[in-house]
Amino acid sequence: MKVLINIFFTTVFVVLLAQFMPGVRVDSFYTAVIVALVLGLLNIFIKPLLVFLTLPATLITFGLFLLVINAVIVLMCDWLVDGFDVVDFWRALLFSLVLSFCQSLVSKLSEDNPKKK
Q1: Which of 14, 63, 65, 67 is the most buried (most CB within 10 A)?
Q2: What's the gap between Cα 54 and its chain centre?
Q3: 0.70 exceeded by the pTM?
Q4: Predicted pLDDT at 1
Q5: Transmembrane segments in this chain: where (predicted)?
Q6: Looking at the domain assignment, is residue 114 inside a domain?
Q7: CA of residue 76 relative to chain centroid, distance
Q8: Which of 44, 32, 41, 42 is nearest to 8 (CA)?
Q9: Cα 115 vs. chain centroid, distance in angstroms?
């Protein structure tokens, strides 16, 4: 159930970001659902491989290279999904930053708060 909620919120964020961010376009809500699914799959299967392969660069930049990996993941999604377009690397970087921030905010707000004794 939590996965479906995450996909739903990611879909909503993709649609909203496409509306407000120039250089990012999504054709429909259905396309945004596909984008959310593909981003999730790329983050599960491809991102760990990219992180491993670029570990020296990530260590030298104190983890900032992970932002580049996130932008590459967004550009891969752009390449894989028809109807989702990101103009350039910098828009992909900004898109990934804002999307990650929104997802973490929703994750933090939806956490179960333990009852205080």
Answers
A1: 14
A2: 19
A3: yes
A4: 80
A5: 28-46, 53-77, 89-107
A6: no
A7: 11
A8: 32
A9: 32
Q: What's the pLDDT tens digit per position in 9-44? A: 999 999 999 999 999 999 999 999 999 999 999 999
Model confidence band, residue 65 (pLDDT cutoffs 50, 70, 90): very high
End-to-end Cα distance, the chain: 28
3-state secondary structure 3-44: HHHHHHHHHHHHHHHHHHCCCEEECCHHHHHHHHHHHHHHHH
Split into its structural domains, the chain has a count of 1
Measured from the Cβ of residue 89, the count of other Cβ atoms closer than 10 Å reads: 13
Instruction: Let me know: does 67 contact 97? Beta carbons within 8 Å.
Output: yes
DSSP SS3 for 110: coil
Q: How many CB atoms neighbour CB 13 within 10 A?
A: 21
Tokens standing for 34? 């596909």
d(CA 87, CA 25) in angstroms, rounded, equals 9
* pLDDT value at residue 110: 81
Contact 19, 98 (CB under 8 A): no
The answer to whether residue 116 is domain-embedded is no
Per-residue pLDDT tens over the stretch 37-58: 999 999 999 999 999 999 999 9
